[in-house]
Structures are given as C-alpha cells and as structure tokens.
C-alpha cells in the first residue's frame, strides 16, 4: 500500500506542476469576482474552480483517496465554541477540504485570546469570534460554506442552532469550556444520535505525548474527564462519546497549589456561564487538542483505518471488591438485599469515581475492600467507603460491631475527607 501511496503523491506533484498555470487562471478569475463583490465581506459559497480545490488539496487526495475526500466534502460539521480550541478545529477542517460548517460562539475576540487562538490578530480584538473565523477561512477556502452564529449554545436553543436551515449535521464538535453546557451538549448529541467528539481538560497539561483520544469511559488521570463522566452517568450515558483528553498527571510539585481535586471542585462549583479558563494553561495545548480532533474526524469520516482501543480490564478487580462487601454483609447478618443493592457496575463507579481507586485513609490502592460506613444508616452511595482490607476489619469491629463513635476512631481530617466525598456524590446525584 505504501508504494502505491508514494506513486500517487509523485504523480500528483507532477500534475500539480503542469497544472499550476491553470490554477493561476482560476485565481485570477476568482480575484476578479472578489473585486466585483468588494463591498461584501464574505464571499459567496461554492464560487470556485474544482481544479483549484484539487490542487490545494492534492496531498490530502493522495492520503485519503478519491472516495475518502468525497466523504470529507460531504460533511456538515457543527462546531460549538470558536475560541482557543474551536478555532483550530474549524481552520484545519476547512483547510483539509471540508466544505460545509457551522460555527457557534457568542463571544468576541479579546487580547488574551491571541495567546491561544489559531488566526486572530490584534485588529480582530473586539470582533465576534465566529465572524473572525469565517472571514479568515473564506480567504483560505473560497469554496467553503460557513455559517456563523454569534449565540450561546443552550439546551433550549439547541434545535434552532444546530438544525438551522433544516440541515442535519454529520458531526458535532464540543469545544465548550463550561461543564454544564458541555454535558448538556453531549447529552443532546447522544440522545439525537448525532456523531460527536468532545474535549476534556486542557488546563494544567503540558505533555504533548500524553494527548489521547478514547471513549469517555476509558479516560483516566484527568479531573475534568472525571466530572464529565460522572455527570453523564447520572443522565444514563456511560459510553459512546469519544473525547480528546490528556492522561498526564499533575506535577506533584504543583500539588499544594492545585490538586486534581481542586480542579474538580473549581469545575463543579463554577456557574453555568463561568468557563474553566482561570486555571493555568499553556498556550500551545489547545492547538494540540484541536488538531487532534480535526485529524480524528478526517480519518474517521473518510474511512481511514484506525486501530481499536483495548478494553480496560478492571472488571475482575471490581468483582473482588464487591466480594469483600458481600462477605461483610454476611458477617454482620445484614439483609441480603442490602448487598445486592449495589450491582457490579456501581462498584466500579464507587471505586474509580468516588474514591479515585484508593483508600481515603491510607491512600493505598491495593488490597481494597468496601465497607458500610455508619452503623445506623442504610447502605447507599453515601454510606459506603473504600478501605484497605485491614482498615475494613478495624472499621467493622470498632464501628459496626462495638458501636464506637466515628469521632472516637478517626481523626477529624479523615472524617472531613469522607464527608467531602459524600457531598460531591450528592452534587452529582
Ligand atoms: C462584539 O462584536 C460585535 C460585532 O463585531 C459588536 O457589535 C459588539 O458590540 C461586540 N461586543 C462587545 C462586548 O465588545
Ligand atoms: C490512551 O488511553 C487509553 C485508555 O485510557 C489507554 O489504554 C492508552 O494507554 C492511552 N495511550 C496513551 C499513549 O497514553
């Protein structure tokens, strides 16, 4: 296959040299028509020469093939968010041959956005983000048909925004940086069976080799992914949403300033219109995330082969933890129904999402067990704690059997941590 690809590239290159006079003519014609439309800022869509399109996209034709490029051309992609992330997605999809797009964002370009934005200049400051992109992209790809909506995406306005003019998108790209709206948009796309891809936390990340694309259920070591995962789960969505995320762990030297728990708190306590952009962020990272999304969409829609992710094998681990809990219920002679209250997949949630895979007391992540926490309360999400097996034994003896008070057994620090975990769970419930 490699051989053929190179042949195609060489041939295309040769053809492009011979046809360049043709392209010059096309450009001349195009410039003339621009001059005629001098008063209009934006060019009329599809006012182009097929030869120009092919010349400009010769290398993508060589890579994705005729059929692949036909599919790329057919897409109608709706991009929600046109800032640090969305600007890269829009730009590279248009530069790669996508012809039809809708960009939605209510905001204007600010000075500080120049640090991350794909194409905005100082003279764009104060303009609508969507108009800035539309203007810029029309100059790159006169064949593109870009709709720009300077409006906020909301659940209520979703039909009107996304299906404007009766067109159905082939893809929605979530480039929002607010947790609530993000989850609403993902839920909307999922429920309406529209292909979607989303971006997780960019702030505090800096390692380009850790940027990854996976199903939301497979994301790890990313606090924003955890928030999105938990919120979606409470809306009945566990898998089926591809996301770009970074599994880079926070530099421990920064931990006292900004732990991943702090980031989650920041995200869940921000109100609907507050973005996550107050966290420290390196300006190159949004571009990497955006280009990853654009690349993923291009290969996906053109049918370029991609290898599958392996399924995370945590199932056995969760099963063994569930076993520790069932045994405890037997030892305590508690109602059997109580232990079957938590089915296996809920154990996974409790272990991974609520307790982040480790005992809140010792921080150990091996030999784990689940225990009922308060003796006089029913078993529920907010009355179960992940401990080590040794810790479970002590808890069972002193608190659950001998009836000692929690404050007599644990320091206030430990109790605060557990209270915080339960409070967090109430937020998601
Ligand atoms: C945003 O840009 C639009 C159009 O460029 C302008 O009319 C509006 O006043 C701007 N808003 C702000 C808050 O700068
Ligand atoms: C990407 O994420 C998946 C799922 O979490 C993981 O199995 C894989 O190792 C990750 N790849 C990289 C390069 O981090």
TrEMBL record:
GO terms, molecular function: tRNA threonylcarbamoyladenosine dehydratase; ubiquitin-like modifier activating enzyme activity
InterPro entries: ThiF/MoeB/HesA, ThiF_NAD_FAD-bd, Ubiquitin-activating_enz
GO biological process, one term: cyclic threonylcarbamoyladenosine biosynthetic process
Domain THIF-type NAD/FAD binding fold, chain residue ranges per copy: 58-327
GO cellular component, one term: mitochondrial outer membrane
Cross-referenced PANTHER family: TRNA THREONYLCARBAMOYLADENOSINE DEHYDRATASE, TRNA THREONYLCARBAMOYLADENOSINE DEHYDRATASE 1-RELATED
Protein name per UniProt: YHR003C-like protein
């Amino acid at each position: 296959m490699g051989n053929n690809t190179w042949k195609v590239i060489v041939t295309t290159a040769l053809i492009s040299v011979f046809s360049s006079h043709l392209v010059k003519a096309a450009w001349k014609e195009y410039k003339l028509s621009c001059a005629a439309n001098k008063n209009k800022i934006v060019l009329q869509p599809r006012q182009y020469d097929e030869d120009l399109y092919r010349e400009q996209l010769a290398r993508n034709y060589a890579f994705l093939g005729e059929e692949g490029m036909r599919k790329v051309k057919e897409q109608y992609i709706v991009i929600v968010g046109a800032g640090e992330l969305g600007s890269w997605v829009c730009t590279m999809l248009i530069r790669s041959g996508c012809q039809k797009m809708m960009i939605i964002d209510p905001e204007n370009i600010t000075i500080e956005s120049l640090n991350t934005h794909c194409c905005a200049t100082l003279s764009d400051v104060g303009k609508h983000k969507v108009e800035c992109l539309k203007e810029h992209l029309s100059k790159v790809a006169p064949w593109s048909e870009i709709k720009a909506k300077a409006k906020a995406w909301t659940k209520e306005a979703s039909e009107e925004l996304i299906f404007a003019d009766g067109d159905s998108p082939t893809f929605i790209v979530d480039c929002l940086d607010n947790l609530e709206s993000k989850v609403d948009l993902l839920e909307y796309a999922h429920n309406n069976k529209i292909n979607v891809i989303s971006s997780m936390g960019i702030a505090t990340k800096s390692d380009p080799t850790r940027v990854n694309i996976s199903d939301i259920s497979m994301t790890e070591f990313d606090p924003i992914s955890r928030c999105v995962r938990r919120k979606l789960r409470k809306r009945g969505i566990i898998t089926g949403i591809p996301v770009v995320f970074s599994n880079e762990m926070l530099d421990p030297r920064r931990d006292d300033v900004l732990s991943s728990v702090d980031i989650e708190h920041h995200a869940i306590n921000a109100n609907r219109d507050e973005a996550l952009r107050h966290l420290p962020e390196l300006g190159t990272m949004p571009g990497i995330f955006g280009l990853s999304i654009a690349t993923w969409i291009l290969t996906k829609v053109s049918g370029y082969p991609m290898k599958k992710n392996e399924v995370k094998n945590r199932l056995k681990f969760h099963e063994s933890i569930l076993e520790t809990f069932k045994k405890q219920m037997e030892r305590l002679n508690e109602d059997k129904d109580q232990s079957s209250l938590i089915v296996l997949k809920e154990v996974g949630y409790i272990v991974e999402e609520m307790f982040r895979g480790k005992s809140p007391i010792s921080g150990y992540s091996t030999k784990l067990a689940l225990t009922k926490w308060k003796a006089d309360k029913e078993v529920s999400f907010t009355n179960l704690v992940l401990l080590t097996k040794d810790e479970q034994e002590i808890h069972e003896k002193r608190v659950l059997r001998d009836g000692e008070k929690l404050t007599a057994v644990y320091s206030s620090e430990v109790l605060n941590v557990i209270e915080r975990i339960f409070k967090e769970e109430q937020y998601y419930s």
